[in-house]
Amino acid sequence: xxxxxxxxxxxxxxxxxxxxxxxxxxxxxxxxxxxxxxxxxxxxxxxxxxxxxxxxxxxxxxxxxxxxxxxxxxxxxxxxxxxxxxxxxxxxxxxxxxxxxxxxxxxxxxxxxxxxxxxxxxxxxxxxxxxxxxxxxxxxxxxxxxxxxxxxxxxxxxxxxxxxxxxxxxxxxxxxxxxxxxxxxxxxxxxxxxxxxxxxxxxxxxxxxxxxxxxxxxxxxxxxxxxxxxxxxxxxxxxxxxxxxxxxxxxxxxxxxxxxxxxxxxxxxxxxxxxxxxxxxxxxxxxxxxxxxxxxxxxxxxxxxxxxxxxxxxxxxxxxxxxxxxxxxxxxxxxxxxxxxxxxxxxxxxxxxxxxxxxxxxxxxxxxxxxxxxxxxxxxxxxxxxxxxxxxxxxxxxxxxxxxxxxxxxxxxxxxxxxxxxxxxxxxxxxxxxxxxxxx
Length: 440
What we know:
Elements: H1 5-15, H2 21-32, H3 39-49, H4 57-66, H5 68-78, H6 96-100, H7 108-115, H8 119-126, H9 131-134, E1 143-149, E2 155-161, H10 163-175, H11 195-199, E3 207-212, H12 222-231, H13 236-245, H14 264-275, H15 286-293, H16 295-307, E4 310-315, E5 318-323, H17 325-329, H18 331-344, E6 355-357, E7 364-365, E8 368-369, H19 378-394, H20 407-421, H21 423-434
Helix pairs in contact: 1-2, 1-4, 2-3, 8-13, 12-13, 16-18, 19-21, 20-21
């Protein structure tokens, strides 16, 4: 059954622009020509029905059809309005796409031309029908996948796109995602910010609260990514294709051919988690999209921290809060509020990794101690020093116990990290590194 044009305009007023009650009521007033009394309660019910993410237009139409008050108003006032009786709408407010200076793409054909692919290639790489994820043939897969069993428990799947899809994703990153500024509290994957800016607000604080997000990348599902592109004022078809290009899913049969040193419960949990279309850890677009999808979370946690006289920063899935004596008195209860906000925003806290660190203990974030100043923990420094010493004496092959494919690069990276935190302290490590004979 065709949707009346006026009803389509009303649905579009809900899904476009800013997600604020007053702004949405204003857009509806522009469409209907008058600020009807039922509009504000209707918009409030809409936000309760769709808190996050932004719904599709067909879901909004279903909501309107099922809303008793709107159905009565439609039958009484609007169902018989003809085209020549519609109020003339003023120019729409600036969309997020305009504010972010994103490329104006209105059709799938325009998207294919912008990405310099054929329409067939666009459908193939977006894979909205899940053809490649259902196939057991690895040659049809768009991703190279590697499985890691975490020391703390659980499984991590790293998914790196193959060459052509990687080029497409880099075009989306450069042409769209890099133009969108993340929240000031986000420090991971952001130009000009780093692990050092992440820990800086928490140095020499009375108490530090550290929390982790569980399964950060796979918890960001395709619907959430498509919702962002719709919020950027792209038509639903274009938003769906962009979301498909930036997400993937894993066939359940994939896990049968990769035996793991993990419990059957952990394997089954990962099988279900990665079978949904999700943000792949290893794609060029995933870091930027993770910050974009977590923007509302960062807003809420920043406001919560401000209300408790605390500082808040996030580095990917690591959350850090710190403050003075007032925050110290409520740190445990504060962590409960954070976990509740995480659940409301579609994330989950890794409760076993939650730490409330007071002045009498080692306060550590992202591999650094922050009690007085940012520094390398003595235990980590001594362990790396011993590894380098043994490599110099007995050869590097005797120390690669974790089976790193490039042990030299691994050690050089660890030494460089120590140099970035405490250059003087790292001199001895650099000297030991230079003494290693890599041919042994």
